[in-house]
């Protein structure tokens, strides 16, 4: 479970996140345009940066009091892969497995899970964007974290790669998943709850069964273009 409590993030005189609060258990999608604060939120929840105020509890661990403990609870997939391009898929995962003290059986299991076993000896520099994203998910799952943070995972993927990524994500039903995106079609496919972030504020927060999925794209556009708030 992920409990976010009144997180604020300031960069000088600019407020990137303003009293952001929500609870996620299951699959939650946070929609928002570029500049809404989505990536900043993911960076805070993954302990890459600290909030200016507020906190979050990741599987019960306080972000501010025990950031090291939080890191053991989360896996992160960003729109940048951060792999070693001159190493193979297997070598990359083996490197990270060593950091997490995970055995090689888990590495091979995850390569199979994301459909890359037959490409494990290929250099990552030869991988497509979609393959790198699937490898990123394997890396994020190496230490079997209960919470997975996905920052715009569909960015730059073609239709086939998007479908394969969706299939991989659909098998994570035992995890708490928080995904940010501006793509309403992909964002609604698997989620249990939805939030909309605009200019650092949560302006919409509902369970999926409380909203009309057919009307949601219009709701999203309306909220992004005006100041209305729906809680």
From TrEMBL:
<dbReference type="Pfam" id="PF00005">
    <property type="entry name" value="ABC_tran"/>
</dbReference>
<dbReference type="GO" id="GO:0005524">
    <property type="term" value="F:ATP binding"/>
</dbReference>
<keyword id="KW-0813">Transport</keyword>
<keyword id="KW-0547">Nucleotide-binding</keyword>
<dbReference type="InterPro" id="IPR050763">
    <property type="entry name" value="ABC_transporter_ATP-binding"/>
</dbReference>
<comment type="similarity">
    <text>Belongs to the ABC transporter superfamily.</text>
</comment>
<protein>
    <submittedName>
        <fullName>ABC-type multidrug transport system ATPase component</fullName>
    </submittedName>
</protein>
<feature type="domain" description="ABC transporter">
    <location>
        <begin position="2"/>
        <end position="224"/>
    </location>
</feature>
<dbReference type="GO" id="GO:0016887">
    <property type="term" value="F:ATP hydrolysis activity"/>
</dbReference>
<dbReference type="InterPro" id="IPR003593">
    <property type="entry name" value="AAA+_ATPase"/>
</dbReference>
<dbReference type="InterPro" id="IPR003439">
    <property type="entry name" value="ABC_transporter-like_ATP-bd"/>
</dbReference>
<dbReference type="InterPro" id="IPR027417">
    <property type="entry name" value="P-loop_NTPase"/>
</dbReference>
<keyword id="KW-0067">ATP-binding</keyword>
